[in-house]
Design a protein that fits this description.
It contains five helices and no strands. With about 130 residues, it is mainly α. It has one domain. The longest helix is centred in the last third of the chain and has 26 residues. The mean pLDDT is about 95.
């Protein structure tokens, strides 16, 4: 049953990411330096590679969060929310900021990507504690 929870949490977070980046596509492309194609979308948007890599990464995060939640005994909705927010806000977002800082990326990119990591991990935490 826990394997299913990991997969469902990953799918939900991936779907949220699609919405998040659809809404913030313009500012994200400016901040990240991704070139726009003739249609205004990312020039590399037709390649499946970034989507496959991101989905595998999300599965790994979801699986590890499930493991940590089980080890820590987090099993209520509020614990899932707080645990997920904690992972996104205090583990993943600072690492994004570190990488963006060394590559001199705009702070806006950290806010956009860190926001996705934080809310995405909260979604994972909710699903992992509801299953």
């Amino acid at each position: 049953m826990q394997f299913l929870a990991v997969i469902v949490a990953a799918f939900a977070t991936f779907a949220f990411g699609a919405l998040w980046y659809a809404i913030l596509a313009g500012p994200w492309m400016v901040a990240s330096g991704v070139k726009r194609g003739p249609d205004g979308r990312p020039a590399n948007g037709s390649s499946p590679t970034p989507y496959l890599i991101s989905f595998v990464a999300i599965i790994l995060v979801s699986g590890m969060m499930r493991h940590v939640f089980a080890m820590a005994g987090l099993d209520t909705l509020i614990e899932g929310v707080m645990g997920g927010l904690g992972v996104g806000l205090f583990f993943i977002t600072p690492w994004i900021a570190l990488n963006n800082g060394y590559t001199m990326r705009p702070f806006t990119l950290t806010v956009i990507d860190g926001g996705y990591a934080t809310i995405g991990c909260m979604i994972m935490g909710i699903i992992l504690t509801l299953f």
